[in-house]
Amino acid sequence: MMERKVTLRRKPSDVVREQRDAIQKATGNPHIAGVSPFDSGALTLNFDGEELQLDYAQHLSIDEEDLNSELSQQPSLYVWYARLLGMQKALVDTAKNALREQEGRLYTLIRNRLEQTLGRRPAQVEVDARLNQDAQLKERRQNLIELQLQLDVLWGIRDSMAQKKDCLLSLAHNRRAEMSLDLHVNKTTQLERSFRNSRNKAAKE
Question: What is the pTM of this model?
Answer without folding.
Answer: 0.65
